[in-house]
TrEMBL record, chains A, B, C:
NCBIfam families: PRK00892.1 (NF002060)
GO CC aspect terms: membrane
Keywords associated with the record: Acyltransferase, Lipid A biosynthesis, Lipid biosynthesis, Lipid metabolism, Repeat, Transferase
Superkingdom field: Bacteria
Protein name (Swiss-Prot/TrEMBL): UDP-3-O-(3-hydroxymyristoyl)glucosamine N-acyltransferase
Swiss-Prot/TrEMBL GO biological process terms: lipid A biosynthetic process
EC number(s) recorded for this UniProt protein: 2.3.1.191
Source organism: Muriicola soli
Length: 311, 311, 311
């Protein structure tokens, strides 16, 4: 197997707590059995009878139980227990994938990523390292997930855009050729839906967090370090800039932009683009202080009516 | 196997690009192995040794590699490669069902329909032709789905009605004996819920499209060519007439009727029946132009208060 | 197997419609094969050749086809068909678990409970008797479910709390160490999410009913006999007292308390604690009669403006 991220000789030796022969930054890109090794691979050998075969194989790193002479252009990892250390590397670098998940052979899954049971992963999906994909998640073809991403149970990434042309004979569907791209350190709650892009990508940028039952439409971009609370719905082609907070059950109309560090209070309906750095409320949403004033004014109508009746 | 739709001799010959002997409209209703064939079935034979057996079987259509005399009341399909052509028909008419889907033996699935992994299909469910059921969908017993229907991941069809009688000792549940019926050319987004009818059916009529996370209550009828956007919730016993559009996060109270071609704007709450052909907004929803005027009036209270204070 | 609830000799005899020898309340805690039986277990024997072995085994209840002398400290169940009656008990007390569900070996599932296909049940989960868990449900580690509970398809119990500390380098997640606890006679609709508690439990008390697509945040407590309609979202640390009704698409802010028998109308936004016994509406929610008056007043602004213009 190839490591999802290339390693150095020193990183591998440090991981195993053993010594090495070669440059500290000697590249290590994977590990394999001796009959299929390639340059960049680690091969292991623990019997003098096979030393030559291992040292002369295509592998450029040899995990060996004796400090022998290092061949030109190669490196050695000196281990008392090459077998055990090889197993340690396998455990460290392989992803854990439940036997009852359905995963396309063309999907790529990074090391230390855990795929729980009954997850569906479509063709050409890429998932980075240290991710945790909870049960019953569905990931459609071509979605891309970064490192340290957690996706809670039942969430759907990559469903089709809700985008139809009204023709006399029925709705004509615009095909969705884009992807869903989830950057590093994002967490997505349970039972969310993120539609794929029609032509571009639906993107959630680095470090943003989505609560449960959030919907994100096609081609929408959610910036870095945003917080999106439960049951919020964001239509297609929306741009949410960095560090925006949307509280629960907010709705955002298509093609709106919400500026950096804006806060939208619960149940608000964003019907147009909003400037950053302010707090909004209402449906349609307005600045919260304006909206609160309006609500206070509404409560003063009785005194106006009373005065009118006295005149 | 029986075809989900009866074919004619000409249709089958045309599908295979081969010639036939018999009436163009000679009925072809399935295909099978020689020991179990019935009238209407295709049987194949490619060796003279077995010609008689095939021609005298109960099958009324013989796929054969020689133009022999056609028995009375039967038809021939003349193929250079009966084996390959028989396989072609199997591929064409069988549905594709993932091995990791859970499907009741009593469910019927039409040709060219694809069932993705981890789909659950209950007893006596009927699904038509050319449908695509995405992963992790759950279809309860007795639901009926037409042709050319697409259902996105995680959606649930046929959960129980939310209908209880409040008795001193606890809620008493009304049993749901109805079905969910999805007509042709409907598309349902990801993570939607459609409850089954209590006594009748919950129905989505021909050509309507539902976005993600839509909820439809028991016995509700959605007309033809409707558009229902994300996170809209429709209670039980609602009638939505044809060509209605409900935008995102709309709520509709139970037993309301929404007239033909009505448009309800996002986040509106439909608390009573609405006439067709108009646009509505607000919670409770009113005609959008009335509601917008109200919002404008609300902003004029300060000038009224100012005048009052001057008097 | 051990029964999920200890039985008495009389209960077992009555279940089988047979006679017994021993005290009516003689304890029966399980049943097993003769080589592994323990005190409290039923063993069966139907051939005189094995009578002694069964009567002298560690089992304290012997299901036997002859009224023999009862050993000291033991009890007999006298059956004409011990084999058939033993099978009846197995069927009665075993849970039915679909082969395509993924269930942790450490989960405990009570008798007569049905687990449908593609359900995921995590470590140390406890599920009581007579429950029905529909397909594609996900239950995270440590959740506890009582008796007579029904959970509809795709629902997620025990996802993480949405609770982050905003640090310059990114959001820091508060770990969720609590549980979700569902008491007896609760029904939860399809595609709901209930987050686990951070330190305590997220609890739904006896007899409450949740519709589809409801979200319940961490550490929230829903009282007895509550009705929560579809698409309602309840934030974390909320207390909903007994017999409260929340209609569709209601939102409740974190840490609010809603008093006993309160009713909150559809689409309302509960922004602060509400006293019991009243009906509320609006976003932010207020008493419904106050809110309806406000809406009526809003419609009288035009006459105030008209009068102003006449002055």
């Amino acid at each position: 197997m190839k490591f999802s991220t290339p390693q150095t000789l020193e990183q591998i030796a440090s991981l195993l707590g053993i010594k090495y022969v070669g440059a500290a930054d000697f590249p290590v890109t994977g590990m394999n059995e001796i009959h299929v090794v390639e340059p960049g691979d680690i091969v292991f050998v623990d019997h003098p009878k096979y030393y030559d075969k291992a040292l002369n194989s295509k592998a450029t790193i040899v995990l060996i139980n004796k400090k022998v002479e290092c061949p030109e252009g190669k490196a050695l990892l000196i281990s008392e227990e090459p077998f055990n250390d090889f197993n340690k590397l396998t455990k460290h670098f392989r992803p854990f994938v439940s036997a009852s998940a359905s995963i396309s052979p063309s999907a790529r899954i990074g090391k230390s990523t855990i795929i729980q049971p009954q997850v569906f992963i479509g063709n050409h999906v890429e998932i980075g390292e240290n991710c945790l994909i909870h049960p019953n998640v569905t990931i459609y073809d071509h979605c891309v997930i970064g490192n340290n991403v957690q996706i809670h149970a039942g969430t759907v990434l990559g469903s089709d855009a809700f985008y139809y042309k009204n023709r006399p004979e029925g709705f004509d569907k615009l095909l969705s050729g884009g992807r869903v791209v989830i950057e590093d350190n994002v967490e997505i709650g349970a039972l969310c839906t993120l539609d794929k892009g029609v032509t571009g990508d639906t993107t959630v940028k680095e470090g943003s967090k989505l609560d449960n039952q959030v919907h994100v439409g096609h081609d929408t971009v959610i910036g870095k370090k945003c917080l999106i609370a439960s049951q919020t719905g964001i239509a297609g082609c929306v741009v949410i800039e960095d560090e925006v907070t949307l509280w629960g059950q907010v709705g955002v109309t298509s093609a709106a932009t919400i500026g950096k560090k804006a806060v939208v209070l619960a149940q608000s309906g964003v019907s147009k683009s909003l400037a950053g750095g302010k707090t909004y409320f209402g449906s349609p949403a307005d600045e919260a202080r304006v909206k609160m004033k309006e609500l206070a004014n509404l409560r003063r109508i009785p005194e106006l009516l009373k005065q009118k009746n006295q005149q």
